[in-house]
Amino acid sequence: MTQDEMKRKVAEAALEYVVDGTIVGVGTGSTANMFIDALASKKGVIKGTVASSEATAKRLAGHGIPVLDLNDALTQVASLSVYVDGADEFDGGKNLTKGGGGALTREKIVAAASDKFICIVDETKRVKHLGAFPLPIEVIPMARELVAGVARKLGGNPVLREGFITDNGNLIIDVHGLVVTDARALEDELNSVPGVVCNGVFSHQGADVVLMGTPGGVETIV
Ligand code: 5RP
Fold first, then answer.
1. What is the pLDDT at residue 1?
2. Is 16 a catalytic residue?
3. Whose CA is nearest to atom 2 of ligand 1?
4. Residues with CB under 6 A from ligand 1
5. What does 115-175 look like in DSSP terms, one character per residue?
6. pTM
7. Percent of the chain beyond pLDDT 90?
């Protein structure tokens, strides 16, 4: 089975967690795109969706699936029923690295607004410790060098994502070479640096369930 086939299987498996009549949070990336395509079968059955990026909103709308602004959604319901998204890495504690597509801030917001986070990945994303994938940090432009300096002190090698501006008008710094033994502590430490909008460690907003595609089928990790 190819990596794309594994992604498609987990994307389809995630439909089981979609609750009829509710608002669903939708992630960003190639695996999330496959989920969006599968979700088209639930059009008219779910109340609507909240998108974690402009690209996701466009793809949802292309299927005729209603897309709500998060603030509007949260005036109708206390929380979204479920958030479905991919990840760049996950560890044994279901901590994630996200932001390869640069949508980490909105992804973390929508995940936080949802009752449950279903993470859809193929088996290549499993790691012992986060850090093999460069950690994305969204920064306010004037804080770029300040945040890069902090990343160096933490033992990482920060690299500006050239020519990339987030949906929020900010920059992304990708930090290479970190070995993350305490994901929660690193997430908190980076959040304390002025100018950091969001970092790609999802420990507070880690997955509740990981659906992992393998050549043998979909494994559910709870
Ligand atoms: C986007 C993300 C994606 O979830 C992550 O990059 C995984 O993407 P893909 O499903 O294409 O492998 O965090 O910001």
1. 84
2. no
3. 99
4. 27-32, 85-88, 98-104, 107
5. S-EEEEEEGGGB-SSBTSSPEEEEE-GGGHHHHHHHHHHTT-EEEE-TT---TTS-EEEEE
6. 0.96
7. 99
